[in-house]
Specification:
- By secondary structure, the chain is an alpha/beta fold.
- It folds into two domains: 2-228 and 270-306, 3-Layer(aba) Sandwich (Rossmann fold); 315-369, 2-Layer Sandwich (Phenylalanyl-tRNA Synthetase, Chain B, domain 1).
- The chain has 14 helices and 15 strands.
- A seven-stranded mixed sheet has the order 5-4-3-6-7-9-8, sandwiched between helices. A three-stranded antiparallel sheet has the order 11-10-12.
- α1 packs across α2, α1 packs across α11 and α4 (109-115) runs parallel beside α5 (130-139).
- The longest helix has 18 residues, at 175-192.
- The chain starts with a strand and ends with a helix.
């Protein structure tokens, strides 16, 4: 049985019961709202003579691709290997009268991506994107969008980070950001194999998934420079100190604060995971549109755009628990850090966390004084 719903300004037929063969996840509406605004913002900046094609390679019910065609006005290819999903995609294209802009495919995603070069490639798999990442990186010309829902191996909660993503994550208090950067590192390495470089435009993690939206640029020199953005995070589980190390040869095995042995996470992406100007464009696009998760999307993107480009954060509630003091409001801590000469900001990764260039000992001293 099926029912008709509405996301944004698009009508969608979805199965009334969850079926993997025709997958539709209503919890991902927030992500799809941001995608519509992001693809629109990116496409607006392209030369007017170009007619880019966007592919939703693992489409399920086809909701994301149909929305891009309907709400952005782009030419889209919408693919799913499942025959029931393919039939549902065709119904959703017809429901919105998008026959001239949208084409349905019933192919193996890897084969389709290897056969065709697409300006914009979107991977939204059920689980890990790894089985499709190489083909996507070979196919994409301009914009790559990737989702991962297998957050446990990415953040170090379960094994598999090294096996799947070629990196060793650590299960820290900033595990959601670590997972995002491990995924970005894997995408970077796969793109660089084809002399392509990544420029993250908007990367975020919320609920059960990680989402990356990134510009792709060609050139061996750019790819080499991109590889230099990978490195390591040094974590002390004794005192909570953490720092960045760009080169394995410079790694120190003892904590610079307490002298305890440290652990190493990486390689992962250390540089900025968003572009502020692009985030502002996406925020403006969200404000102009009819969207179901408009307020949540605008808040998330706004927070992302104002985050410091530091590859970790500090959960101040956890620090206060160790110090056996009540946690102050996050705004009070940020103001105190800035008054002490440090940079500090909120982060979308956690409502009770702060990004700062202060060391853990300085943060503890400031918290004791509040």
């Amino acid at each position: 049985m099926f029912s008709e719903i509405k996301e944004g300004t698009t009508k969608i037929i979805v199965p009334e019961q969850l079926k993997r063969s025709m997958f539709y996840n209503p919890k991902m509406e927030l992500c799809r709202d941001i995608d519509v605004a992001s693809v629109s913002a990116f496409a607006t900046a392209l030369p007017s003579r170009q007619q880019p094609i966007y592919i939703d390679a693992l489409a399920g019910s086809g909701v994301r691709g149909v929305r891009i065609a309907n709400e952005v006005g782009m030419c889209v290819h919408i693919n799913d290997r499942s025959t029931p999903a393919y039939e549902l995609i065709k119904r959703n294209i017809a429901l919105n009268a998008l026959g001239e802009r949208a084409c349905a495919y019933n192919e193996n995603a890897n084969i389709l991506l290897l056969q065709t070069r697409y300006e914009m490639v979107d991977l939204d798999p059920f689980g890990s994107p790894v089985p499709f990442l190489d083909a996507a990186c070979k196919s994409v010309k301009r914009l790559l969008l990737v989702t991962a829902t297998d957050t446990a191996p990415l953040c170090g909660a379960h094994t598999g980070g090294m096996r799947k993503y070629g990196a060793k994550p650590l299960n820290t208090d900033y595990h959601t950001e670590m997972a995002t950067r491990v995924l970005l590192g894997a995408v970077t390495r796969d793109l660089c194999k084809y002399d392509k470089a990544i420029q993250p435009l908007l990367s975020y993690s919320t609920a059960h998934f990680i989402r990356i939206i990134a510009r792709v640029e060609r050139g061996a020199k750019r790819a080499d420079a991109c590889m230099n953005r990978l490195g390591f995070i040094v974590q002390c589980f004794s005192c909570g100190n953490r720092c960045v190390c760009a080169d394995m040869q410079d790694l120190k095995r003892e904590c610079t604060v307490c002298g305890a042995k440290v652990r190493i996470a990486g390689p992962l992406y250390l540089h900025a995971i968003k572009e502020n100007a692009f985030c502002e464009q996406v925020h403006d696009e969200l404000g102009k549109r009819e969207l179901g998760k408009k307020s949540e999307a605008m808040k998330l993107v706004d927070t992302c755009s104002h985050e410091l480009d530091i590859p970790y954060y500090f959960e101040h509630h956890a620090i206060c628990k160790v110090l056996k003091i009540p946690p102050p409001p996050i705004a009070t801590l940020i103001d105190a850090l800035r008054s002490a000469g440090f940079h500090a900001s909120r982060t979308h990764f956690s409502d009770v966390a702060v990004k700062t260039d202060a060391r853990i000992d300085a943060i503890k001293d400031i918290l004791r004084g509040l």
